Amino acid sequence: MPGGKSDIDIWDYISDRILEIRRGVDTLFLGEKKLRETLTNIVDETEIFVRSCEIPGVVTRWKQINPRIIFFDSACDLKEESPKLYQQMSLGLSNLKLSCYPDESFSEAKKKYFDEAKEHSAVCNLKYSEEKLFQNELIRTLSMVFENDFKEYVTVPGFSYKIIQLLNDIANVSESENFAYVYSTYSSLKNAPPAIV
């Protein structure tokens, strides 16, 4: 927590930071309705992720933009670890619902993804955990969201990296760094030059 304070509620803190970002977007982009709406949508989607308390926990649109994020969905693990329960759920014979129902080709693609990630981690001596791989894929996903949403711009607005970093830091367990990036994100939004259309 900021300044080593342990009596601050993390949900209140995150809510305050997201509100600051919302205010920054609304203030900085007056008269830029499309840009403001696009950024507000990304902030809304980021808040959904932060509050979902699940992996991947992202909105459907992000999964459509980067389907690899679905490799981290618990449905994949359930299919491997409890095939009978998975089959019941996929056939609608259970009141439990999953966010996705991977088939064999998806399971093969997932295995290939994690095998390649494991090999890359070993070759580069990265020693990445599955959580770290998820964080990296989440950052990649948000980068792809910005690229998708700002196609018509020559460059992605400079402050977008800060929002991406904020999401990464919120997902990361290192709380002290989170707050520096939240403040840095807000400062970047506050001081960002107008976007060139």
Share of residues in strands: under 5%
Total strand segments: 0
Order of helices and strands: HHHHHHHHH
Count of runs of 4 or more consecutive helical residues: 9
Question: What would you say this structure looks like, in words?
Answer:
The chain has one domain (2-191). The chain has helices at residues 10-28, 33-52, 60-65, 74-81, 83-90, 104-123, 130-149, 160-171, 175-191. Helix 1 (10-28) packs antiparallel against helix 2 (33-52), helix 1 (10-28) packs parallel to helix 9 (175-191) and helix 8 (160-171) packs antiparallel against helix 9. It has 197 residues and is mostly helical.
Write the layout of secondary structure elements.
Blueprint: H1 10-28, H2 33-52, H3 60-65, H4 74-81, H5 83-90, H6 104-123, H7 130-149, H8 160-171, H9 175-191
Question: Main attributes?
Answer:
197 residues; mainly alpha
Short description:
This protein has 9 helices and no strands.
